[in-house]
Amino acid sequence: MEGKKLRIAMLGLGSVGSKVVELVTKNSEYLYQRTGVQVEIVYGLVRSILEEDKKKLAKNYQFQLTDSYDDILSDDSIDVVVELIGRVSPAKEYIVRALKAKKHVVTANKDVMAQYAHELLPLANQHGVTIGYEASVAGGIPIVNPLKTQFSLDTITSIRGILNGTTNFILTKMLNESLSYEEALTLAQELGFAESDPTNDVEGIDAAYKVMILAQLAYHVYPKMEDVQIDGITAIHPAQLAVAKQFGYKIKLLGEVKAIGNELSLRVAPALVSDQTSLALIDNETNALQVNSTQIGQSFLSGPGAGAAPTATSVLADIQALIEKKELGTSNQFAPVFFENLEFTFLAESPAEKMGIVMKKANASQKFTNDQLADIQSIHHVSIADDAYEWLVTNPLTSEQLHDLLESLNRMGSVLGALPFVD
Amino acid sequence: MEGKKLRIAMLGLGSVGSKVVELVTKNSEYLYQRTGVQVEIVYGLVRSILEEDKKKLAKNYQFQLTDSYDDILSDDSIDVVVELIGRVSPAKEYIVRALKAKKHVVTANKDVMAQYAHELLPLANQHGVTIGYEASVAGGIPIVNPLKTQFSLDTITSIRGILNGTTNFILTKMLNESLSYEEALTLAQELGFAESDPTNDVEGIDAAYKVMILAQLAYHVYPKMEDVQIDGITAIHPAQLAVAKQFGYKIKLLGEVKAIGNELSLRVAPALVSDQTSLALIDNETNALQVNSTQIGQSFLSGPGAGAAPTATSVLADIQALIEKKELGTSNQFAPVFFENLEFTFLAESPAEKMGIVMKKANASQKFTNDQLADIQSIHHVSIADDAYEWLVTNPLTSEQLHDLLESLNRMGSVLGALPFVD
């Protein structure tokens, strides 16, 4: 290991891998400024080094394309192996060999971490290296590392979440566009949200892997797939979604880890979620997690569950944690970089905004002037109890325009307030 | 510094401080098992060592009560100073002196971090120690550390949030219980959600401190209070809330950091939030943050913004990070503790659950039997397009009871599906 470098070998250069290469390169100067560590992509392991797009990527980002994992393992200058091959074989074997060669591993592989964490985590520990797997659950949502830090000394009573983007997309389209399950699946496949063989997603297997990893992190147990009760969404009928909606419920495929006394219930199943809850608002391919714990109470996190950029960002967060580890001893905190030369200024006033104004007119028959109407998009009369109000929605106005309008409106009655709409 | 101990001095033993003492003690055996590091509370700094409740706390948890900060600073065995005094003076001076004495600092102090981070962070770096301040923004929600890790290599376009629990509580009560601002404030004070002098909360100052810290973390700039445009909630009229609700909006006090080109807009202001959004669902004293960034897209986090237990949990997360730092070199990862002797089992079937069933009866006039009705809480007839369905809400049923009911219902027509309600 060279002193001030962090040298990376990429296993797999698909959409996530390519994005990791791009983002590491893009951020390397910034990371060097902050930490004094130079992060470099050195190898890219692929099945064939003859593929044109891989060759182009390697040339652009100046790393070595190889089809020999032995070359990577025997290179002592490599600090980190980033595994983005997916599925169990050969990914798991590659991870084992990297750990034994005392290389840190960063992976997005939920299949491997769900089923083999009990073997891999002690192995890493034994060889003095770490496995980062933030990207393995809920893509761009930080949940693996927070469960190891923020929540690790709290007592978690349950974690419930929308952990599979494909099925959430399908259920959303079935409801909003009255599609059958088959039609929504076809749409998901066309848009790239579902694989040609969608079994793992629609049968709940993918969500079950994530439930297993959440159970590991929250309860330090290593459940097997057969410990999870799994129901998928293939039997959901569009009329179920439509009827449930009439009564204020959405149907979501939920993954759940729940402690009941000394027992732990692990489940993936479609369920009825009140549309007054945060989980019900999570539509399309978005993921979400609700963590219930004794000290913190209820926490809720949502964000993209998949996609190259969000997943690569989680991979980068794990790589960054290794830089921090590497830097320890000389400085155990990222030095802040002061961006004094950037043109950050603070806006003296906000740009034009659409405002909602509530007012009581002194005289109900009084008309708005043409000048006022030029600034107003719509006017609505509202009665609350015995009082009559006007609800005015303005066009986008600058602070100055708003000031003039309010002054003019205040001559007609009393403006209770003007508030900006946020998008 | 002793080899395998992490020795803590507490500054301030109020509700958060007492909770930190309790949680550290409760978790010390577990932390020792996982990391080999013994975490100990050694001192509690208070204004008077004669107060009975402090004396009792010190005796219960076996630490030394002192009114001399010099004693703490001159004790080389102290690794960490946990500052929970609040406000700027003398807290800021205490933090400076701790850093200069090469002691790590963990603090929940937003006033200090908002205004003096530009001075404190480099000072910590210079002395080879760190400042943990996860608890300073949004209490129990992990946001400070995620912004340093998960989001730090992403480009943040905006952060918007409900950052003050007191004002969100007041606005919620004004809307839901048609209270005036003054009535809702009095209620908040009675329930302990607002201080006797509520100025900092209701005028938006507290939220502005948090906006300043978020700007530091997201953009590495150090804004001053006057760079933030601040509006509080004292002028909000209950009729505004009621009228906005009729048009599908809630009024929330939002804190916002937003990059517009090369300019940065910092703002605290009440705004109109569509009730179809996650932010609008955040009621009472809960806080929430919505982070928009280039790679991840939109992330959303919510949880308790204050309270002794959530805040103490964030303090503990920062203390735990120091253990990890201390452990580096021998083992750079928390060793997993296998809980094989605990009575965790995996439930073969779920406990009794209330189910929602959608069915089409073969014959509209056919009656449910008394046996069926015993399991059913309510029955609703629904028409969708030209089809008629029954929406049945069951009593809590075991898997076996559900199985029998479905078998019996299926003889009357076709059950489209039975799904559990989640609470």
Description:
Chains A, B: L-homoserine binds at residue 195. Chains A, B: This is Homoserine dehydrogenase. Chains A, B: One of its GO terms (molecular function) is NADP binding. Chains A, B: Residues 142-319 form the Homoserine dehydrogenase catalytic domain. Two copies of one chain form a homodimer. With 423 residues, chain A is α/β, with parallel strands linked by helices. Chain A folds into three domains: 5-139 and 309-327, Rossmann fold; 144-304, Dihydrodipicolinate Reductase, domain 2 (2-Layer Sandwich); 355-420, Alpha-Beta Plaits (2-Layer Sandwich), CATH 3.30.70. Chain A has 14 helices and 16 strands. Chain A has helices at residues 15-35, 52-60, 69-73, 91-100, 110-126, 144-148, 165-176, 181-190, 199-202, 205-219, 238-246, 308-327, 370-375, 399-410, and strands at 5-11, 38-45, 64-66, 80-83, 104-107, 131-132, 156-162, 228-230, 249-260, 263-274, 286-293, 297-304, 355-361, 376-384, 387-394, 413-420. In chain A, β14 (376-384) and β15 (387-394) form a beta hairpin. Chain A is globular, with a radius of gyration of 27 Å. Residues 328-336 and 340-344 of chain A have low confidence and may be disordered. Chains A and B meet through α1, α5, α6, α11 and β9 of A and α1, α5, α6, α11 and β9 of B. β12 of chain A pairs antiparallel with β12 (297-304) of chain B.
